[in-house]
Amino acid sequence: MKRYLIILPILLTLTVCRSVKAQQDTSKLTILEYGFPPGNDYLNARATVSNKWSIQFNSVADCIVPDQLIDSVKNHNEKTYSKIIDKYGKNWETHFGKEVERELLVQKKARKLIDNEPYIAKLDSTLGTEGNGLHYYLTPQYRATYSAIVFGWGDWNGKTELVTYYKLTIEINKGIVRVDSDKIELFEFQ
What we know:
The chain is of the alpha+beta class. It has helices at 2-23, 40-53, 67-88, 92-115, 118-128, and strands at 29-34, 55-61, 135-142, 145-156, 159-171, 176-181, 185-186.
């Protein structure tokens, strides 16, 4: 259980790191956020859609937020929302939300295919007895094909670290999961 509590901030940090990388791309419109983050599945689907829309979300604080930061976020986001409305129209949030929900459904199919692989189920069960589990980072490649990084806590040079167990390609429409790599390596957010 403790590791699950640790993994959430790590995943949030990884999302923020990806957002900071994207921040260098001035063509993306940045929305600042604070508060308890949504689930990782939703964040992964939203990141996929926001990348297509040239929008990025940066988390600037967790649950405890000073008033000055709230005001700064509000001022920043008002300007950003104005630009997004100019680019995508007044109903952009509705369209964006629906696209995220569709992406989430597709990614859930991919996750189910991964979960059904015997070597994944066995590893997840083994890690689960240690209070750990597997996590997936999905990236669309083309049509209904995704790449996946399967990661979790593991032994790395005698220390407990976040490691990649598998790199996979998932062809959702064909129900195929292909192992691209089963080399255990230190997890690096891409």
